[in-house]
Design goal:
Length: about 200
């Protein structure tokens, strides 16, 4: 993924209705469970930063330079690694918590990204997620048809994924999962999931 300065400049404005409609509250609920050494995958403009517990040690992956600049404006001391999951290089068992919020739609290889995340988690570690998913029935078919165009308008975003299914296939045990509708979503982005997963052996 390259830099997308126009999209980065518009992102907070475009997502503000969802954040004010309840998404920010959900971020707070989700991230209250973060602990220890935390890796956030795809930090974007930094919407999660205000919701982390004060005692965590946070590292963020963000490959888009325009997004990184906006995130650093919120926290100039933030540890950001300018790469994606495919290219990140962490030893096994590096993190107590990995956080994915509205990012798994953009990774090139979802299964591969989750396998890497699994390897980075400590044996008792936790993956916290909040992601939009493919809906069922007619809306899901519409999302499949729209994805090739949508992913160009919203850089890299795929509407036709279910990350919960992919987590289980990658050897993670989903221990908490709430399905809901994104506040003030639209016909393309609405169905969503929020929850937690662990290494299968630790579940």
């Amino acid at each position: 993924m390259g830099d997308h300065p126009i999209y980065a400049a518009l992102y907070d404005r475009l997502t503000r209705p969802m954040e004010e409609g309840g998404l920010a509250r959900r971020r707070g609920q989700l991230l209250s469970a973060a602990r220890g050494r935390v890796l956030e995958v795809g930090g974007g403009t930094g919407a999660n930063l205000a919701h982390y517990p004060a005692d965590v040690t946070l590292t963020v992956l963000e490959p888009d330079g325009a997004m990184r600049r906006r995130m650093l404006a919120r926290d100039p001391a933030l540890a950001i690694i300018p790469t994606c999951t495919e290219d990140a290089d962490f030893p096994p068992d590096s993190f107590d918590t990995v956080v994915c919020t509205l990012v798994l739609c953009t990774v090139d290889d979802l299964g591969g990204a989750l396998a890497r995340i699994r390897s980075w988690l400590r044996p008792d570690g936790l993956l916290l997620f909040l992601e939009h998913v493919q809906a069922g029935a007619a809306r899901g078919r519409l999302q499949t048809l729209a994805t090739p165009v949508w992913s160009r308008v919203v850089p890299g975003c795929r509407l036709d994924r279910d990350p919960v299914v992919a987590m289980r296939a990658a050897g993670l045990a989903v221990t908490d999962c709430e399905r809901f509708h994104l506040p003030r979503g639209n016909v393309f982005v609405g169905a969503a999931v929020q929850g937690a997963a662990r290494l299968r052996s630790a579940a």
